[in-house]
Fold this sequence. Notes:
Elements: E1 2-3, H1 4-27, H2 32-39, H3 43-51, H4 59-62, H5 66-80, H6 88-98, H7 102-108, E2 116-117
Parallel strand pairs: 1-2
Protein name: Transcriptional regulator
Organism: Thermosphaera aggregans
Amino acid sequence: MxxxxxxxxxxxxxxxxxxxxxxxxxxxxLSQLDVAKILGxxxxxxxxxxxxxRKSKYFEAILGFEDFRRYLDKLALEMSSKKxxxxxxxxxxxxxxxxxxxxxxxxxxxxxxxxxxxxx
Length: 120
């Protein structure tokens, strides 16, 4: 049995980072270096995400959820205006648990919700 944190960090978070990188650079006009600092990534990875040379395997599947994408868009807006500097990965995980999107997202990344351990 895997923990939700393990699945989240290996499959969901890379897709989120790619999406936020593209959004912040292309739509909010932040520099790749600024985005790298905000997201805790290397600038080269942000460049690959922006140019489309690199995508997460589950990028399209995860972003198919409207509520999830709206949350990420709001998060990107807050990050671009420098109002948000918190631990976005933890906040996003809590959002998934609160909205009960966790099971749907697990299915999208080819994980069985019944085989993933979650803390209450």
